[in-house]
Amino acid sequence: MEYREEDFLMLSGIQHFAFCRRQWALIHIEQQWADNLRTVEGNILHENAHNGLFREKRGDTVISRGMSVFSRNLGISGVCDVVEFHKSGAGIELYGLTGKYEVVPIEYKKGKPKENDADVLQLAAQAMCLEEMLVCDIRTGYLYYGEQKRRLMVDISDMLRDEVKAYCMQMHQLYERRHTPKVKISKACNACSVKNLCLPKLCKDRSAQEYIDDMIERGQ
Known about the structure:
By secondary structure, this protein is α/β, with parallel strands linked by helices.
């Protein structure tokens, strides 16, 4: 199945979806958002990653910043912080350059590696978009964490690709239904930028529809 361009969802949304499906729905379906310190610092880091020449060459490496990507198979589109093209014996040809190049996506993140796979899934989604656009094979990408100031290599495995496909399919299904799911309250809620919009404690209460159904079932 291929998605139409007008049906594309934001690639960056996959990290929200992996963190919390309700957070994703509030941001991407209901269009609600609230910045906190974490998101502001993250935005500054991404602006620095995108800042500079659109494309530059350093030795045998070509660096592209703020590269737009998409996938019709996944139905997503977005922007890669940095994509490096390393000259290699195998790979793809680049316009105006001799030789072949290996494609390596790099995603910039504030802080340090997370306990969940949200960042890894976003990087894998970028790699899958690049593969579809450039007709290439990407097996490795990197996550750069601002707090540690170093890159973490990520293996773009088949298992990770299957997880990205499953998440994208679920995102499209929820978006088509315009459905905002409830949330399972956890300590992660305290760090969520939309906590005050989400009001997670309210999710513990029954919905109006559940109350009505219960009354009908009781014959009241």
